[in-house]
Structure formats: structure tokens, C-alpha cells
Amino acid sequence: MSEDNILTAQGWIRGRLVHEHGKVVSIEGAPCNPADNDLPYLLPGFIDLHVHGGGGKDIMEGAPAFETITRTHVRFGTTSLLATTMTAPSEEISRVLKAIGEFCSDRPKGSSRVLGVHLEGPYINPGKLGAQPNFAHTAMMVEVEEYLALAPIRVITIAPEIAGHHALIRALSARGVRMQIGHTLGSYEEGVAALNAGATSFTHLYNAMSPLHHREPGIVGAALAHAKYAELIPDLLHVHPGAIRVALRSIPCLYCVTDSTAAAGMPDGEYKLGSHTVTKCLGGVRLPDGTLAGSTLTMDQALRNLVKIGLPIAEASQRLSQFPADYLGITERGRLQPGAWADCVRLDRSLKLTAVMVEGEDIDFKNA
């Protein structure tokens, strides 16, 4: 095996990664500065906590779509992900969750690992749907309990200003579900109260939430002033690079997601996003009225975008791998160290992806 510049929890190592039975056994080599050589970069595999689709398929299509989606995203370095639902009638959400729960029990060869579900809606504000279909409703614990029995729901997006949601945030947070503030018209004060009740992050920061104003700081203000974690879409369409820099200075563990749709990895054209039809063109995905509707972003491009706006490669990697893992409380992914899963990506000096490994499996993504 050739040498790489390996990004470890302790810094860069020039050497070789050794793995057995899907886990890292050792990293052999010596500390280095990658600027002093021309070797490739070996980084932890990307962890995407907000994936609606890819390869022409949408999560809400159910089981027949999942393998296509995970095979599509692994081609771009995503070694694990959360299958993200859309706001929909409860029976449709239940059907999809049951299928995801079954899919999570195994990982098809050549695919990303599905770590669980990000339930993005239906517990959102109908006045801030963004690209979500209009099936929003108030959360009831009895319904959430039914959903939790069907699949490992790791993250729930919720609008904290809706009556009853404050108590739900407190109850579900105590059970280890990550409650994210999003698709909300809430005030700064309601955002801070939700954080105090146990909410831990913000869904696609800046997008589909009350904005920052110097006399009404809104949900964005609550995030910038108080959050440890928040997700952000760095496709440079959803958020201006200057606003990304503001978030980077304010939120210590800001992590990046794709919010990718069926259009990811596909040519321009029409695709499904839940019950919506969306159009991919000019590098984005939009509803007929022009509203941004998820993205076509892939995680390798997210890395390049972060480096383009000035982040060192090590920090960009951290915000695509370690911080998402930390947010979920996962210690065996998102970092390269003995005992961790052998999930990694190799990139050349221009940051072009050249190899992907998931749980020790070399992915033949070039012929996928």
C-alpha cells in the first residue's frame, strides 16, 4: 500500500493505514506537514446527516430507492448518512420509516452505511415550508412513539414556536433523539428556550427560518449567539460565503450537509422530492416558483467549496466527518484511529476523489 498524508485525530501522519475486519488496526508513520510533499490525502469518510435522495431516486419512494441512493452517495465519498424524510401524510411516513428500519440492519456491498433517520417534518411551521409539501401538523407523542418503533430516528426537525413542541423537545431530547430547530417562524426568545429545553442543532442554518435583524434577532440570531452545533449547506447557493464565515466564527461545531435530492449525481431535468416535482438546472434544484428545493451537492464538492472559501483541508474535513459523528454521539466513525471503522476517502492534490473505503470495503465507484 502506498503512503498517504493521513488525517488523524492527532494531526497529519505520513504513512499507511492498516485495517482488519472493517476496523482500523493501526496508522503507521510519522507526523508530517502535507505542504512538504506531494502525496495524496487520506481523510475520514464523509458523514451526511441530511440526504433526501440521489441517483434519480427519492427516500420517500421507499425500499426500491435506498440502494440506488446509497450507491450514488458513496461514489462521492459519503461513507455513512441519515435517510431524510419529507413532510407527508402519516401513513406514508410510517411506510417509509418501516422500510428504512429494515434497510439499516445491513449494508449492501458497494453502499454507504445508513445510520438511521432524519425526520424533517411534519412537525414544522406551515408558514415556513420551504420546499416541504404542505402536510405540516403539530407533533403528538403517540405518533412519534409509533415512528420510533419503526426505525432508528436519530434527528427530528421541529418548529419550537408551535404549542406543545417545547414539551416534546424536552421529552425526546432526554431519550437521546437530537432535536433540531428548523422550518420555523420562531423568535430569538423561542429559539433560546428550545435550546434550554434540549434542542441541539439547527436544520440548514439560515434557510427556512426567521432571519437575523438587529432588533429582532430571530432563530438565526439564536443559533449564532448560543448554538454549539448547526448544519449548513455549503453549495454556495443556499448560503453566501460571507454568511458561512459568520457561522464558522459563531458556532464551534458547525457541520455541513448536502440536503441532496434525487437530482444529485444526475443530469439536468425533472425529479421527485417527496410529492413535489423539482427541476435541476444551473447547478441547483428548484420548485416551479423558483424556491430552492434541496440541492445537487455531494460531499466531495462540499469539501472543495469549504477549501475554496479559505478553510484548511483538515478543518474542512472535520466539519464533514468528525463533527457530524460527534453530534450523533458516534465515536467509531468520523475519525481515523485504531478501533474506528475503516471509513476513509483518498483525494489527489487537486482534491479530486480517487478512492473510497466503507468499513474496510474498497468501493469500485468508478465503474458504478
Molecular structure report:
The protein is α/β, with parallel strands linked by helices and 368 residues long. It has one domain: Metal-dependent hydrolases (TIM Barrel, Alpha-Beta Barrel), CATH 3.20.20.140. The protein is built from ten helices and 20 strands. It has helices spanning 63-74, 90-104, 141-148, 165-174, 188-197, 218-226, 241-250, 299-308, 313-318, 322-328, and strands at 4-8, 11-20, 23-31, 41-44, 46-51, 53-54, 57-58, 78-84, 113-120, 153-158, 178-181, 201-202, 229-232, 253-256, 269-273, 276-281, 284-286, 344-347, 353-358, 361-362. The strands form five sheets. It has a seven-stranded mixed sheet with strand order 3-2-1-4-18-19-20. It has a six-stranded parallel sheet with strand order 5-8-9-10-11-12, sandwiched between helices. The longest helix is centred in the N-terminal third of the chain and has 15 residues, at 90-104. The protein is globular. The chain starts with a strand and ends in a 6-residue tail after the last strand. The relative contact order is 0.17. The model has no long low-confidence stretch (mean pLDDT 96).
Strand percentage lies at 25-35%
Structural class designation: alpha/beta
What number of structural domains do the residues give?
1
Order of helices and strands: EEEEEEEHEHEHEHEHEHEHEEEEHHHEEE
CATH T-level fold name: TIM Barrel
Q: Alpha-carbon distance between the termini?
A: 23 Å
Q: Which strand order does the major sheet show? A: 3-2-1-4-18-19-20
Beta strands, count = 20
The parts where pLDDT drops under 50 for at least 5 residues are none
Q: Any idea what the CATH architecture is?
A: Alpha-Beta Barrel
Rounded to the nearest angstrom, the radius of gyration is 20 Å
Average pLDDT works out at 96
